[in-house]
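Chain A, query sequence.
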Amino acid sequence: MAVFQSGLLVLTTPLASLAPRLAPILTSAARLVNHILYVHLQPGMSLEGPAQPQSSPVQATFEVLDFIAHLYAGANLHRHLDVRILLTNIQTKSAFLPPLPSSVQNLAHPPEVVLTDFQTLDGSQYNPVKQQLERYATSCYSCCPQLSSVLLYPDYGTGMLLVESLDVPLSSTIRPASPVARSPKQPVRGYHRGAVGGTFDRLHNAHKVLLSVACILAQEQLVVGVADKDLLKSKLLPELLQPYAERVEHLSEFLVDIKPSLTFDVIPLLDPYGPAGSDPSLEFLVVSEETYRGGMAANRFRLENDLEELALYQIQLVKDESHEQHEEEKVSSSNSRQRLLGKLLRPPNKRPELPSGLYVIGLTGISGSGKSSIAQRLKGLGAFVIDSDHLGHRAYAPSGPAYQPVVEAFGTDILHKDGIINRKILGSRVFGNKKQMKILTDIVWPVIAKLAREEMDLAVAEGKDVCVIDAAMLLEAGWQNMVHEVWTVVIPETEAVRRIVERDGLSEAAAQSRLQSQMSGQQLVDQSHVVLSTLWEPHITQLQVEKAWNLLQKRIAKTPQAHD
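Chain A, predicted structure.
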């Protein structure tokens, strides 16, 4: 059966009966669609009548909100799918209810196939029903001209559908912060304007629950605060966060897709309160279990400034059923960033000038990052490791190629009595003096690069197919031009300072000064192909390195030069 890039899933079963069938329905849909899956809720609709079915409003109740949360949670099992529940026909009970748009809604990715859970009487792919489904889909949304249709029943299984006790209420995932007891059938109130905030890095299904609830509550405008700058500093692996503009782009496409009738004001969030603390026109704020206290604090801040409190809607965290031991139990961007460790982030460099059959990795990282321990782990897996520090010692030795030019440039008072260069005195001359540092690096870096090329030839002679250049100054020296991939080891600066103090006996100030003289972790990552981190226990680091190594072996097998 064909697989489609984008699809539209029309769900017609009443929600209480649909919830237990959702997992097999999503699994069936995931076999047919491999990228974007739009979901349209029209419970109770029949596709077997003579008249063409019309889209009708679905009353927004807490049952509907819970179902949306349930569907997004179930979609986590299909990570390749970008699921988007369309909200145009889901309406709150409010006096200022806009009429349902009669025009066809444009979607960012027009569906190539329309799917449904609707059951024909005999369980067949009954053509008139499929035609009705296609007509219904194209009357609601912009679809591809050659639209296909599939009735998922009975593919999503019949065994569990015979059980009569399916009408079990969904677990409550959305809680309004008020003394009013909520019930599944209770209508949800609509508001003119509200707000929601977050980092929205690598937009995931827990974000989508938060945003969907906010979109249903808001009737006119939704203010969306996107964390930036200082609010990102405490994040895990901040170097792997998508840039602000990229996060906003993905977020905006999702929001306009699910509810185009709303006006969205997407703004950078630079302090914990954002507009929620100061905008008098806001009426509600959607928060997660984790940010609920922040919502309460924003309300206290509003009261202190004579503003009305916001109605708070708290969303339960979505559990990540497939999280690893060192990952968070909830669906989170932190887990997504951790899963990027060891993976290729951008295409490798073509380096035809390097020795044939040798794949060269440049390994770098800030001081204290654990780069050398990673180099040793790679050596244990079979890599030939070139230590640029050792090459530096060879270059500075009295018989080394950098010795004479350095002495001529800096004078004989940098020498020990035995004629060896005193690297401490030399270091004190160049540290903090850009001009002197450039004189030194212009001499030494090309020499070390030449020695590294000689070591590569040695690696080939030893029959190695992977060579790792361990170099803290890899990018500063321009040595990325002689590697296929740059691998960077990252850790938080606070952890790097702690390690440098412990390892080298420096003061915290001296450790920070050392780090400030180097490229930052972010600058390194921006030019890297693979990122690793030694932040966790050694066995986690080992698993990361093995993952990176195994993926590298697959890449090498596909590289033509590997077979020269």
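The longest strand covers residues 218-227. Confidence is low (pLDDT under 50) at residues 158-167.
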